[in-house]
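[Meeting: bench + compute handoff]

Bench side (C.D.) handed over the final construct sequence. Compute side (W.E.) agreed to return the predicted structure before the next meeting so the bench team could plan truncations. Sequence as handed over:
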Amino acid sequence: MKKAFLFFVACQFIAGPALASDDKFSKDYQRCLDQAVSTSDIIECTQQEHEKQDARLNSVYKKVRDMESESQKKKLLEAQRAWIKFRDTWADYLYDPEGGTMVRILTAAWLLEATVDQAIRLEQRLQPE
């Protein structure tokens, strides 16, 4: 039952970006997934996209930080550190060593999705209200 659930969730993360017109992922990621033929290929595609999205997150974080007052900068730093701790702790939880290869895909996909979502949240702070 647990493995079936993990497979379903992993398919939602992987197939969703590949099949939907989801603008939050790069076209390179979608092409890479379309060409993937193994678990290793899927994980490699996802890790490459994660690196791009992590750079996006770092860039937007710096822009948001630079526009904030000193007191808000401190709060932003605290929030970002808490988010990183949550992200890493949740990924550790998901990466059940007894879960098989789908757990590797699920964890990589979740890390990517979480990073993209955080970048989007921060980008929204740059939008005029």
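W.E. noted at the follow-up: Residues 84 and 115 are 9 Å apart (CA to CA). C.D. will use this when planning the next construct.
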